[in-house]
């Protein structure tokens, strides 16, 4: 059993326009072609945009991996520094006070020297 679909069901022997008026059918075809071309250009634009997004994601992942390794090395450096500070704090309080005074004097002279040069 054949079903009547688009273009079927016209009078037998009339195969030229399948029961449609020629100008109306052509107008629909032209509109379909125009819409198809518009859709094709939009799909192409979205495809290029998604490719650019993919490249940007790869670059950002690479940057994040580099930052992660730098943070790991910084964490190790800070851990060693904190260990040294703990060792320093375990020593006598007089030694710590002496170091703090020397550091304060150094900072004071640096600030004095900067002000004097102005």
TrEMBL record:
Taxonomic superkingdom: Eukaryota
GO cellular component annotations of the record: endoplasmic reticulum membrane; Golgi membrane
PROSITE patterns: T_SNARE (PS50192)
Main location, first listed in the record: endoplasmic reticulum
Keyword vocabulary terms for this entry: Coiled coil, Endoplasmic reticulum, ER-Golgi transport, Golgi apparatus, Membrane, Phosphoprotein, Protein transport, Transmembrane, Transmembrane helix, Transport
Gene Ontology BP term (one): protein transport
CDD domains linked: SNARE_Bet1 (cd15853)
UniProt topology in membrane: Single-pass type IV membrane protein
Entry keyword Glycoprotein: no
Localization of this protein: Endoplasmic reticulum membrane; Golgi apparatus, cis-Golgi network membrane
Complex and partners: Interacts with SNARE complex members GOSR2, SEC22B and STX5. Interacts with LMAN1/ERGIC53. Interacts with STX17.
Family: Belongs to the BET1 family.
Function: Required for vesicular transport from the ER to the Golgi complex. Functions as a SNARE involved in the docking process of ER-derived vesicles with the cis-Golgi membrane.
Entry protein name: BET1 homolog
Species, as recorded: Cricetulus griseus (Chinese hamster)
Higher taxonomy: Eukaryota, Metazoa, Chordata, Craniata, Vertebrata
Gene name of the encoded protein: LOC113832635
């Amino acid at each position: 059993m054949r079903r009547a679909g688009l273009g079927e069901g016209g009078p037998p022997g009339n195969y030229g326009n399948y029961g449609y008026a020629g100008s109306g059918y052509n107008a629909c075809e032209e509109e379909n072609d125009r819409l198809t071309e518009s859709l094709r250009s939009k799909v192409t634009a979205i495809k290029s945009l998604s490719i650019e997004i993919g490249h940007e994601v790869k670059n950002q992942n690479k940057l994040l991996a580099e930052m992660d390794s730098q943070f790991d090395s910084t964490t190790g450096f800070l851990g060693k520094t904190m260990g040294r500070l703990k060792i320093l704090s375990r020593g006598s309080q007089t030694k710590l006070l002496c170091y703090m005074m020397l550091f304060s004097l150094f900072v004071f002279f640096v600030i004095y020297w900067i002000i004097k040069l102005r």
